[in-house]
Amino acid sequence: MRKIAYILFFYCLLGSVQAQQKYWVVFKDKPVENNTYELSAKNQSNRKNLKLPLAQVSDLPVHAGYIDSLQIAGVEVLCTSKWLNATSAFLDTQLLERIKQFSFIQEIIPIDRHLQISSYPSENLTPEYYSTVMGQLNASVFTEQALTGKGITIGVIDVGFYGVTDNKSLQHLLSENRIADVQDYVNPANTEPFTRLETNSDFHGTEVLQMIAGFEPTKKLQYGMATGAKFCLARTDHGTRETRQEEDNWIMAMERMDSLGIRLINTSLGYAVGFTNPKENYKPQDMDGKTSIISRATRIASEEKGMLVIVSAGNEGDDPKWRIVSTPADAEGVISVGATKAKSRDKIGYSSIGPEFLPYLKPNVACFSPSGTSFSAPVITGFAACLMQADSTLTNKQLKLLIEKSAHLYPYGNNFVGYGVPDAGKALQLLKDSTLSLNNIRVVKQKGNVFRVKAEDKSAERAVLFRKKNESFVLEQKLVGLLKGELEVKRLPQEKQTTVDLGNEVIEVIWE
User: InterPro entries, alphabetically (predicted)?
Assistant: First the structure.
């Protein structure tokens, strides 16, 4: 998510809309009028392999009678979601009060939120060099094992994809016809998504795609891990002029990708603050994985459809009024990805942190990105695609756990960097034996208020300290120097545990 996308929405489309607010109208049930489940062959195959029910209520269409009743009442229906059993619409005060009386309506939710833009490779794709983040994640191991995401289709939900045809690192996707589907939900009439520039943000999706699958042959430089994957692309955000269609677009894109049988999704988008009407801003406590409508949809994708959704955590880490992840990065089933520095693997300032009130850890993992978590999430998406190629029977939950367990701090994660930076070599070892404990972690129970660190590697020159108030929540992150491999750590007043990341080893200090 880049700072350029933190902009006010243009929502005064027409004079009649100015007095209206946008809402999701959620229905109580789905009266049985038609039991037809429209599932593609690929979708059915996925569900059988993942042992998910073929017949799901969320696949049934919204009851047509409810839509008719709204339209008769004067509601102009915008988008309808079978997953959420809801429709979106602009409502003025009078219309809102009228439909509140309808017995079939469960709830009416304001949604005028502000979007923040959060096979073996062929010979010409054999890398000699890797981008910094690829080196950090030990990606060469995937290359050695001929893992490039071949056979996997990845859905990318983002802003525009302008410039794909001119991007040298994406030419293999075009020449091999591996962009299978492109949908523009912002401007459906756009037949030239790669060459027609509508906003200055339309490069964003292209850059995200590069971080998933990019390979530049002239430099033999690899940017992303899934160079062999196929892609379905969806533009759901206008970029500069927001019409508040974006949440609808995102959910429609998710439902379409599920219908195509796509199991892996990257979305570098997020919702938090910046409403046109400040009274309608999300509050930090709303980032609970269940309040926002987009997190509800993500939960359905994860729990019912078996989809693995990988989301950028957000860029609010330096904002004292927010700091925490945006939605849907708050949803439990997604992998939300933060950003670290390249070598020390501590959190980059802008990277959003996990809320203390969540009963689960966010972000889940992190990796290097100098330009926002929008570009750390797609790297992990490519990582996941390679693992899916290695074992197509893995469920989304198994994949999520595998990626977390391969990260360098596991099992001592924190709300700054999650479980840390994943490692391709460790992930493949865990794929063979999930009981392995591969991280070099020492647990020390320390009495008193001083702990003297003695690194196994006496040449170690620095360490990252995550000083925590409990198992997961960081009081202070600090990069410190060592002298001959030693360091004295003095306990802070509220400090209960301290993670000492020395690079080649991790020490977890439990203060007694």
Answer: Pept_S8_subtilisin_bacteroid-2, Peptidase_S8/S53_dom, Peptidase_S8/S53_dom_sf, Peptidase_S8_Ser-AS, Peptidase_S8_subtilisin-like, Peptidase_S8_subtilisin-rel
| Full DSSP string of 279-308 | GGPPPGGGTTTTSSHHHHHHHHHHHTS--E
Given 110, 126, 141, which residue is the final one in a domain? 110
Taking the whole predicted model, whether its pTM rises above 0.70 is answered as yes
Please pick, among 81, 114, 118, 158, the residue that the annotation labels catalytic: 158
pLDDT tens, per residue, the chain with 512 residues: 333 333 222 333 333 444 567 888 999 999 876 666 678 888 888 888 888 998 898 989 999 999 999 999 999 998 899 999 999 888 988 899 999 999 999 999 876 544 455 533 444 456 778 899 999 999 999 999 999 999 999 999 999 999 999 999 999 999 999 999 999 999 999 989 999 888 888 899 999 999 999 999 988 999 999 999 999 999 998 766 544 467 789 999 999 999 999 999 999 988 777 645 466 578 899 999 998 889 999 999 999 999 999 999 999 999 999 999 999 999 999 999 999 999 999 999 999 999 999 999 999 999 999 889 999 999 999 999 999 999 999 999 999 999 999 999 999 999 999 999 999 999 999 999 999 989 999 999 999 999 999 999 888 899 999 999 999 999 999 999 999 899 999 999 999 999 999 999 999 999 99
- DSSP strand pairing (497-501 vs 506-511): antiparallel
**Angstrom distance (rounded) from CA 53 to CA 34:** 18
Concerning whether 459 is annotated as a catalytic residue, the answer is no
DSSP assignment of 29-92: ----S-------HHHHHHHHHTT--SS-GGGSPPPHHHHHHHHHTT--EEEEETTTTEEEEEE-
Residue 169 DSSP label: G
> ∠ CA 178-184-186 to the nearest 5 degrees?
160
Helices (H), 283-376: 293-303
Instruction: Answer yes or no: do 422 and 339 share one domain.
Output: yes
Which positions ≥6 away from 23 have C-beta within 8 Å? Answer: 88, 89, 90, 91, 96, 108, 109, 110, 111
What's 494's domain CATH number? Answer: 2.60.40
Instruction: Domain of residue 51: give its range.
Output: 3-110
- Find the catalytic residue in 81, 118, 336, 374: 374
User: Residue 69 catalytic?
Assistant: no
- Which one is catalytic: 63, 114, 172, 204? 204
Among residues 110, 140, 167, the one where a domain terminates is 110
3-state secondary structure of 252: helix
